[in-house]
Amino acid sequence: MADAIVLREHGGPTSLELESIETGRPGIGELRIRQTAIGVNFHDVYVRSGLYQTLALPGIPGIEAAGVVEEVGPGVSGFAVGDHIAYVTAGYGAYASERILPADLALRLPSAISDEVAATVLLRGLTADMLMRQVHRVQAGDEVLVHAAAGGVGRLLCQWISHLGATVIGTVGSAAKAELARKAGCRHTILYREENFVERVRELTGGHGVGVVYDSVGRDTFFGSLDCLAVRGHLVNFGQSSGSVAPFEVSRLAARSNSVTRPILFHYIALREARERMAADLFDLLAQGVLSAEPGKAFPLAQAATAHAELESRLAPGPLLLIP
């Protein structure tokens, strides 16, 4: 038997309840994993609240974790008992002390990357790779606006983009978060509660705007983000922490030949070779010190509701994880 957080109906954090489940044995092409660290993400919040109706209820939420291989199923090669692995999955089930995992999803962890770091950086790191190397390829000399620049993905984007030689402008909610963003490579920070970020971006770019905006906030920033774009600029909306974006006339984009994308990570990591290449690049940059990631604040698995409440408060200083 294993412990798991089961969601039986959509609602607030208290909808997350600890239950005992039976894990079973791994089948063909599967691994049994003893999970050591589980990432807590806004995706999990959206699933719990019902904004994303992608988990059949009752179900076990969670899309990211790290752990140790306890049993190898028939037909699996390349893994052995005791291997440390991490994964991201659209199939959910991460909020558990033990699980059966398709071996195809498992990514072997280098010795330099701890389980705790892996469980909070893999999803964010793969997302950053997707955003600035595939959805819109950032190059030296570019001017880029990153919303929520002190957040988990935001800080990785700032580090990675500045490493490439581009200029990063970041919006943040407080002076403390502005300092975090600057340390991550933001050339300019904008306190969006005190300044009009559209006017400030225009000022910082000499009036022409930025080539790309990475926007995970959604409703509160989307149309302002459009106004920040230069001619042929690209708005990449990859989240909606403030709510869904209202419908708009696509002809609005014509004024400056702008484009809008709403990428989903799982479409970019559907192939194993893509996952492995992106993860290898991420782990290599972490090992080099180009990217940095802290292990995050840990909660016992049974306190998943508390972790969700803290994440939604936006007061968490860094990533959050659950420890079975």
Automatic annotation (TrEMBL):
Stored Gene3D superfamilies: Medium-chain alcohol dehydrogenases, catalytic domain (3.90.180.10), NAD(P)-binding Rossmann-like Domain (3.40.50.720)
Q: Which InterPro entries match?
A: ADH-like_C, ADH-like_N, ER, GroES-like_sf, NAD(P)-bd_dom_sf, QOR-like, Quin_OxRdtase/zeta-crystal_CS
Q: Which residues form the Enoyl reductase (ER) domain?
A: 11-322
Drop me one GO molecular function for this one: mRNA 3'-UTR AU-rich region binding
Q: Where is the signal peptide?
A: none
* A GO cellular component annotation in the UniProt record: cytosol
- Keywords (A to Z) from UniProt: NADP, Oxidoreductase
Q: Which residue spans traverse the membrane?
A: none
- Protein name listed in UniProt: Quinone oxidoreductase
What gene, per UniProt, encodes this protein?
qor_2
